[in-house]
Design goal:
single chain; elongated; five-stranded parallel β-sheet
């Protein structure tokens, strides 16, 4: 496996590199300090996975991750200090396969990289619990599909309102309270959202909605 560690802080790059090598001595780790350097690596070498900081030079937030779509074989994991919910959703929409906070334990990083390289999507359990999503869901299977119907034609106006609250991390009960609806009615709307977006659960609906917003 060839892993590229992209971060503008040399000490962070070196620390992550050493951590990865300690867990997987056979992995080939490279380092980049800017988005431009990271892209050049992907253009000229068979990179399997990139860890990237959203705040390094050349990055303009989650939207910058879309550039890696030029390399469909490259899996991208965001390694950053922000747990902002909207940024996480935007990163998922841009094609990210993992999101990890720099404050996470070392073994969590290795676990995340392993999951992503096996074809899954990794989110920290703290984040999935906030969204009331089972942490096993993103870890077991890839959630992206090559194409989906436009949001405007797939959902009703009411369903779009529910989806917006869902993306904010609201539970079914919270959505019902904020929209002055019965919980059963909200569940009906959720079922319609899943069907309209071709999603199997809350996480897939959030991911696909994020992709549509970022497109």
């Amino acid at each position: 496996m060839r892993v590229l560690i992209a971060d503008d802080h040399p000490l962070v790059r070196r620390g992550v590199t050493e951590l990865v090598r300690s867990g997987h001595p056979d992995w080939d780790c490279r380092e980049a300090g800017t988005l431009e350097e990271a892209v050049k690596y992907c253009e000229h070498e068979p990179i399997d996975l990139v860890t990237i900081d959203l705040g390094m030079p050349g990055m303009s937030g989650p939207a910058s991750l879309a550039i890696f779509r030029r390399f469909p074989h490259v899996k991208v994991v965001v390694l950053t200090g922000s747990d902002d919910r909207s940024s996480i959703v935007a990163c998922l929409g841009a094609g990210m396969r993992g999101y990890l906070l720099k404050s996470a334990a070392a073994d969590h990083l290795l676990h995340a990289l392993e999951i992503v390289l096996e074809g899954g999507i990794y989110l920290p359990s703290a984040l999935t619990s906030v969204w009331q999503i089972s942490p096993a869901v993103p870890a077991l299977q890839p959630l992206y599909e090559p194409s989906i119907a436009p949001l405007g034609s797939a959902l009703t106006e009411r369903q779009r309102e529910v989806l917006e609250l869902l993306s904010e991390g609201c539970s079914t009960k919270e959505i019902a309270r904020r929209m002055n609806l019965g919980i059963g009615t909200v569940k009906v709307h959720l079922a319609g959202i899943y069907k309209g977006l071709g999603a199997r659960n809350r996480m897939e609906a959030i991911v696909k909605a994020g992709r549509l917003v970022a497109a």
